[in-house]
Design goal:
Number of helices: 2
Distance between the termini: 46 Å
Structural class: mainly alpha
Mean pLDDT: 80
Amino acid sequence: PGASRYLADCISLFEEYGWDWSYHAFREYQGWDLEMEDLPRKEPALHATSPTDRLQVLLDAFRENRPLGPNPVAP
């Protein structure tokens, strides 16, 4: 419980301080897998039929994450 709020709070702090961030552990332990339902750990893992709250937090943050300037490697 509260995982989506935790992610949103972390991302907000990282963005406020200008820190780089990434979400790791995708498709590993079911508790961190954004595509799995938020169920108690003793329940079997079920794939979500719609985006989870945790996934939505990250998708919203990715949409807000824009490049700061031109890519110096691009031709």
